[in-house]
Design brief:
By secondary structure, the protein is of the alpha/beta class. The chain is built from 11 helices and 10 strands. Helix 6 links the parallel strand 6 and strand 7. This is Ribosomal RNA small subunit methyltransferase I.
Amino acid sequence: MSARPSVVRPSEAGILFVVATPLGNLKDITLRALEVLKSADLIASEDTRTTRKLLSTYGIKTKLISLHEHNEKRRTPEIISRLKSGWRVALVSEAGTPGISDPGAYLVRQARAAGIQVIPVPGPSAPIAALSVSGIRAEAFVFLGFLPQSLSKKTEIFSTLRYQQLPVVFFESPRRIKESLQVAVRILGDREAFLAREMTKVHEEYYLGSLKQLTEMISEREARGEFVVVISGAKAEVGQIDLSDLICQLLEDGLPAGEVARVLARDLGLSRKELYKKIISIKRGDDG
């Protein structure tokens, strides 16, 4: 009889809890999250200073270690070892839900590969919170996380979303919010948008307007705190779009032919192969 592979069973191993924590207001913590943090053997935190403040507020004395983008791969084996020995570990980010534009995905994947139970403890999420108060309808949306610092990469990202009809949500720092809005309005046009600044904190602010209006407002004041930006989707119907114009605009934005074909096939539901032929024809000057 062949040997069966060794499997770490839930009853023999610990549990990794992925715990959402407040965006700013510490009262937004859930009762279940407090229970998990208090009963855990270990808390792995993206920012121990922020987490220590939360734990102190609620009298929680659980052992705390750091787990951030610079040490996640190095520290994960140690955490997996403790999980295999039966420890209950809580994973938290600086704010909001771990693994969403924050560290945590690598640890979760390694825990699952080791047969460890991974359980979510849901709660605050910045993209969802911003969408909920924006008034912009979103049965679905495109989430970009933090935009790249490079102007050319930002331009490329927005170019691929020019005709996307779903709302777009992203995070931005106060140092780069003005530039990002300027790039967005240049490429996406002056569509409706929403800014959420310092959500749930003492100086939280929310603004709804056109991209141009919001860009002008940001330009006239000193931006402080992190922003969540929501931009409404494109309104044009496929039948109202001049395909050659779309292709030319995307090529002018610096996208290669293959990427233009991919983006338009995705957003317009057209054949990628036929689009690529048309793009090459336009580049050669053969398209009439």
